[in-house]
Design goal:
Organism: Candidatus Uhrbacteria bacterium CG22_combo_CG10-13_8_21_14_all_47_17
Number of domains: 3
CATH topology of the largest domain: Neuraminidase
Radius of gyration: 42 Å
Protein name: PPM-type phosphatase domain-containing protein
Shape: globular
Oligomer: single chain
Keywords: Membrane, Transmembrane, Transmembrane helix
Length: 702
């Protein structure tokens, strides 16, 4: 069944003084009566600078030229589209190199789509409003975020702006809407989803345009509705086609007639070829229409049985039989040569029947096993597809459940044939890909090394990491010094710790005047300029300090043995008496290792447990399950200016990043990691800093 894509535009220009460039480009034609790919480019740029208009000119010109080159070639849709994207990337790279004006790629949203023969390919950067409505077996439409499945790097590479390609099948009855981002904002007012689902594309686009005009929205809109439908009926058969059909029918009839005459002639001649038995008339040997000439094992056995019976019933002459035996003719023996041939034929028939029965049984058994294998295989594919869809929409728990079910079913499939083995291996790889996406692992091959201690320094001598006023601070407990590191120039400045401090630095935090450090012998140090001061502090309430964090000019000290977080006011170089912060707590703090504050207080425990408190009362906050599970934590970082929560996991040799809504963002791993113990961040510049052993690294904050 032939099909085609119907595309309708939605373009409204109502903005009088908008700071956006909005564009919709369609490229379609026919090449010698043959359908060619339909190319659609939709653009939304949050700027009116001339450089962006030039960028669109380059994109438009390159797309037009490349489309003419690739449309004449019959190739795989994905290969053809990848060639187009490669040409676009090359053209944009050349434009950026010769263009003096800088392009802010975070303002650019461009998507390129190609449609042909039921296939659709997409590539792009940024974000645009999109809805994919897939027709289900029951006739309903299920919506998906198509562009959410397109992987994009955190930062755009000007040498490869379109970094990934997504290709797939758009089945009959499926709908795709793509438009500028203001469609999402006005989706409810425009009744967009309902119109796209229930109206023909042309009617839906017309009503959406009319509704925008009626409401009087002072914005520019651009969008397309793509519908995959059955192509119009083909033309009736020509006279030549009818004649060809009649000729073919006649030739077939003549062959059948010739075959029938041949069978009749053979039957008539058989009477003269085969001797006629006296007891039968010549008339009985004439061919009958219902007689079958095919070989039958049952018929052969019946003839053998009748022949044996006739032999036993014959009366034999004793004198003749004695004479024959004397001549060793063998005709007087029951097992004559002819009988032996008949017995042999009978045995062969029995063996053949038994073999045929066995083969039939094995064939039915193999068919049943293959049908069962196919049924289980289809179940695995279904769960894999549903898992991928749930992953796109962030249903990670459901995705994990479906992947686990698919893996359990897949483990029961055998690999008796090469086809089964290949199919199973493909599914295993697909499920592994889903699991890798669930893990959200981000491998950093060469993390930036900012500073390190001497090679002979005791392991884990570098402690207490904090970022204050754009500089990084840590403590070298082996040398009894504080380190100040410039993350840009990588210059390191050292300051001696006062001799009155006998303990080791275990934690650090930021204040307006500089970093403060906490020691394991309950002392608090402040570094201001080049001066290290020991603050006046009475630690009577604190039994076993683990971490310190400064928020709203107050010191919060985690006391694991006292099962409490103590809050202290600070005046000058004097730290006031501690008051209890926690009012209700379901977790014993004996294995707590770190705290972070952003109005709420986050506590990390050595077993990987994470808790959040507000005004001293525990909140319901359950971070997403990750793979491998978080069973260890060494420190935690967040602040008011970020929605990220970072955990250093030395046992797992990774840094785990959650969002504050408890969803997993990333697991940063590296071959350089021995075990990250301290973590802090710079939310303004999107950087993370970790202490791993005696080394200080810089990473990008996902």
């Amino acid at each position: 069944m032939e099909s085609t894509f119907r595309i309708t535009d939605i373009e409204v220009n109502n903005a009088s003084n908008d700071e956006h460039i909005v564009g919709l480009f369609r490229y379609e034609s026919e090449n010698k009566g043959r359908k060619t790919p339909l190319l659609v480019v939709i653009v939304e740029i949050s700027s009116m600078l001339y450089v962006y208009e030039q960028l669109l000119d380059v994109l438009n010109e390159t797309a037009e030229q490349t489309r003419h080159l690739t449309s004449a070639v019959d190739a795989d849709p994905m290969a053809r589209f990848e060639k187009l994207v490669e040409r676009l990337n090359t053209a944009i790279e050349s434009f950026v190199e010769r263009e003096p004006s800088e392009i802010a790629w975070n303002r650019v949203n461009i998507y390129v789509m190609e449609f042909l023969d039921g296939h659709m390919c997409v590539s792009g950067i940024g974000c645009l409003s999109n809805i994919l409505l897939q027709k289900q077996p029951d006739g309903t439409l299920k919506s998906f975020d198509l562009f959410g499945s397109l992987e994009q790097p955190p930062e755009v590479n000007p040498k490869k702006v379109f970094s990934s390609v997504l290709c797939g099948e758009l089945k009959m009855g499926d709908l795709l809407f793509v438009g500028t981002n203001n469609f999402d904002h006005w989706r409810t007012d425009l009744d967009l989803i309902n119109r796209i689902k229930n109206l023909p594309p042309v009617t839906a686009s017309m009503e959406v345009r009319q509704e925008i005009e009626r409401i009087g929205i002072p914005e520019d809109f651009a969008g397309v509705i793509v519908n995959h439908v059955k192509a119009p009926n083909s033309a009736p058969p020509t006279i030549h086609e009818k004649l060809a059909h009649q000729t073919e029918a006649k030739s077939t009839e003549s062959v059948q007639k010739l075959y029938s005459q041949e069978k009749q002639t053979e039957a008539l001649l058989s009477a003269s070829i085969k001797p006629v038995v006296k007891s039968e008339s010549t008339h009985d040997k004439l061919p009958q229409k219902k007689q079958a000439s095919s070989f039958s094992f049952v018929k052969l056995l019946a003839e053998f049985r009748n022949y044996t019976k006739n032999l036993r019933s014959k009366v034999k002459d004793p004198i003749s039989m004695t004479s024959l035996r004397g001549m060793d003719a063998g005709h007087g023996s029951f097992f004559s040569a002819k009988k032996k041939r008949m017995v042999l034929l009978g045995l062969i028939a029995v063996i053949a029947v038994a073999s045929l029965g066995g083969w039939s049984y094995l064939s039915r058994k193999a068919k049943a096993e293959q049908e069962l294998w196919n049924a289980v295989y289809d179940q695995v594919v279904d769960r894999k597809n549903r898992a991928e869809a749930d992953l796109v929409y962030g249903n990670e728990d459901q995705t994990r459940r479906l992947v686990k079910e698919a893996q359990d079913l897949l483990a029961g499939l055998d690999e008796k044939t090469d086809t089964q083995k290949t199919s199973k291996e493909t599914l295993i790889n697909d499920l592994n890909d889903v699991q890798n996406k669930l893990r959200r692992e981000q491998r950093v091959d060469n993390p930036t090394l900012l500073a390190s201690l001497a090679i002979d320094a005791p392991e884990n001598s570098l402690n207490g990491l904090v970022l204050a006023n754009g500089r990084l601070y840590a403590a070298d407990n082996a040398a009894k010094q504080l380190l100040e590191v410039d993350p840009i120039s990588k210059q390191v400045q050292r300051y001696d710790i006062p001799s009155t401090v006998n303990g080791s630095i275990i934690a650090a935090s930021e204040t307006a005047t500089g970093p403060v450090f906490l020691t394991n012998d309950k002392k608090i140090l402040r570094l201001s300029g080049a001066k290290v001061t020991v603050l006046s502090y009475n630690p009577e309430s604190t039994e076993n300090p683990k971490d310190i964090n400064v928020y709203n000019k107050r010191f919060y000290i985690l006391d694991s043995s006292g099962n409490m977080i103590w809050r202290h006011s600070v005046t000058g170089n004097s730290v006031g008496a501690g008051s209890q912060y926690l009012k209700q707590n379901s977790e014993n703090l004996s294995n707590a290792v770190g705290i972070a504050i952003d109005a709420s207080v986050y506590i990390a425990f050595s077993n990987g447990t994470l808790k959040r408190y507000l005004s001293g009362t525990e909140e319901q906050w359950n971070p997403a399950t990750i793979d491998p599970a978080l069973t260890h934590a060494d420190s935690i970082w967040t602040n008011l200016d970020t929605d990220r929560v970072a955990i250093a996991d030395a046992d797992g040799k990774r840094v785990v990043i959650f969002r504050k809504d408890a969803r997993l963002v990333s697991q940063i791993i590296s071959n350089e990691f021995k075990g990250p113990r301290f973590v802090t961040g710079d939310s303004a510049n999107k950087k993370l800093y970790i202490i791993d052993g005696n080394r200080l690294y810089q990473l990008d904050l996902p």
